[in-house]
Amino acid sequence: MRIGKTYFKVYDLILGALSLVVLIAVSIWLLVHWGSIPDLVPTHYDFSGNIDGTGGKSNILIMLGLAWFIWLTFTVLDFFPGAWNVRGLSEISSTVGKAKAISLTRTFLQIIKFLIAILFSYLTICQAQGRAASPLLLPLSIFLLMGASVVHILLLSRLK
User: Fold this and answer.
1) Where are the alpha helices (DSSP H) in 34-94?
2) What share of the chain is helix, strand, coil (3-state, %, to 5)?
């Protein structure tokens, strides 16, 4: 599918839309529940997901604002593949190979954008509810983000 001069695969658009839906949903949830959020909320979690820092409830807006900033930045970058530092792109000789590398990188960015939207939304809800995060949060986040990175690098390295 083409948007402007940029071509997107359908699953890239679906991932981008899902990340947007996640952020809109958590923003609406936060607006609806803002009055019932305590004045003192968690602002930091340790490696096990336990609360080890607190602050005012306006700190929740920082987490959500950062999620929106990352989403917007990745969305804008989608339209400027020349700005991406794609590993080995200059070594790929064929035009088809370069197009595949750009397509793989666009999908990778959409996956990262989706994972970050979920992660930050989860943390925003934990903050708003004043509860600890899951002890699986850090290992799972690292596994998913690093796993996507490794798969992306392996797929790029196979291009000629």
Assistant:
1) 59-77
2) 70, 10, 20
Q: Enter the pTM of the model.
A: 0.87
CB within 8 Å of 159: residues ≥ 6 apart: 88, 92, 97, 100, 101, 104
- The dihedrals phi and psi of 78, each to the nearest 5 degrees, come to -55, -35
How many Å apart are CA 108 and CA 116, to the nearest integer? Answer: 12
- Torsion 25-30-33-37 (CA) sign: positive
Instruction: Give the integer Cα–Cα distance in Å for 115 and 132.
Output: 20
Cβ pair 11, 18 in contact under 8 A? no
CA dist., res. 24 & res. 76, Å (int): 18
As given in the structure block, the two tokens for residue 113 are 């954008």
C-alpha to C-alpha distance for 65 and 96, rounded to whole angstroms: 38
Contact 79, 4 (CB under 8 A): yes
Tens digits of per-residue pLDDT, 24-72? Answer: 999 999 999 999 999 999 999 998 999 999 999 999 999 999 999 999 9
Strand 6-7 and strand 40-45: the pairing is unpaired
Q: How many CB atoms lie within 10 A of CB 49?
A: 16
DSSP 24: H
